[in-house]
Design goal:
Helices cover 35% and strands 24% of the residues. It is built from ten helices and 14 strands. It binds N,N-dimethyl-L-histidine. N,N-dimethyl-L-histidine binds next to strand 12.
């Protein structure tokens, strides 16, 4: 740890934030190359900003994925078949999965999100529309070690992971995550997943640095959320949003760059950032179909089919457990 950046846990003030979260934030902020986990984007403001990002003209993934589902739904249904348990990873308002109910006819629907409270209203409404589908909402942090409870039927589990959130994992974590899903499936199980594809750098850069500055607000809001969790004193005005496609690493990188020399402190610690120093806040990996299929195969899935839009910007991939 640099001389000027200190941690003194004994001096920590009284906090309500769980200790493991404080520890994770402090470790990232005090690293030589400061970094934070993208999961801290999603407080109440961050979640609304993300919904706004999804309808921006520059942010093509959401509408492109929706278009793929609309265009290829009949073929997908034919390939995937019906019945079983539909397990919706990071379900949010459950809208994407609900579009599958009339065609895939699952016997059970299991929406999972970091907080079960986020799911309750959506599940109540869905249960009225689809009373014959058994619904079990679960609150799980998918970035931690997680297990499905016994209420989730084992027969023909279909893990549904749209939105290209798999890109926010480091590739080795993505592999471990996919292996974990494979291990939770019987041979009739599978995964239906949205994957953002490698494309022109300018298009990717624009998608993460929109002209309205919504993605900038989403990135900067992270500092407000950290202030809330850590009781730190980040001043959002001292930081600048940066996002670019790192071609060599095949990933969008988001950073917050110090506009000046900055001293940030919190109960029990502090860090001095020099002008232009960065906090690395997110990676969003982009794959080719082949590289993602390799990942699925390495995780133990057998690759079955994929569907793309006419520009081949995004893919929806179905892989069967065996
Ligand atoms: C949630 N995830 C798939 C988004 C992405 O594109 O990586 C998060 C995001 N970050 C900035 N814009 C959108």
């Amino acid at each position: 740890m640099p001389e000027s950046n200190r941690l003194n846990s004994a001096a920590s003030a009284e906090r309500t934030t769980p200790v493991h979260i404080i520890h994770e934030l402090e470790t990232g902020l005090l690293a030589d190359a400061a970094h934070t986990s993208p999961k801290y984007f999603y407080d109440a403001v961050g979640s609304v900003l993300f919904e706004a990002i999804c309808v921006l003209p520059e942010y093509y993934p959401t509408r492109t994925e929706a278009e793929i589902f609309t265009t290829h739904m009949a073929d997908m249904t034919h390939v995937i078949g019906s019945g079983g348990s539909l397990i919706d990873l990071g379900a949010g308002n459950c809208a994407k999965a609900a579009r599958l109910f009339p065609v895939l006819h699952p016997n059970q629907y299991v929406p999972i999100d970091i907080s079960v409270h986020h799911l309750q209203d959506a599940v109540r409404r869905l249960q009225q529309r689809f009373p014959h589908i058994e619904m079990t909402a679960l609150g799980l942090d998918l970035s931690q070690d997680w297990q499905l409870p016994v209420e989730v039927r084992y027969d023909k589990r279909l893990f549904f992971y749209p939105g290209s959130s798999i890109g926010n994992f480091e590739p080795h974590q993505a592999l471990a995550f996919l292996r974990h899903l494979r291990a939770a499936c019987d041979d009739n199980g599978g995964i239906l997943i949205g994957v953002d594809l490698i494309k022109d750098k300018a298009l990717l850069d624009d998608a993460y640095a929109d002209t309205l500055g919504v993605t900038a607000a989403f990135n900067l809001n992270l500092l407000r959320h950290i202030n809330h969790l850590l009781h730190s004193d980040f001043d959002v005005r001292q930081w600048q949003h940066e996002a670019f496609f790192n071609t060599a690493k095949s990933r969008i990188e988001m950073h917050l760059r110090a506009r000046e020399n900055i001293h940030v402190s919190w109960p029990g610690g502090y860090r001095n950032f020099i002008k232009d120093e960065h906090i690395h806040t997110e990676n969003s990996y982009k794959y080719s179909i082949d590289s993602f299929v390799n990942l699925l195969t390495e995780a133990g899935f057998s690759y079955v089919s994929h569907w793309t839009d006419t520009n081949a910007w995004f893919a929806v991939i179905y892989a069967k457990a065996a």
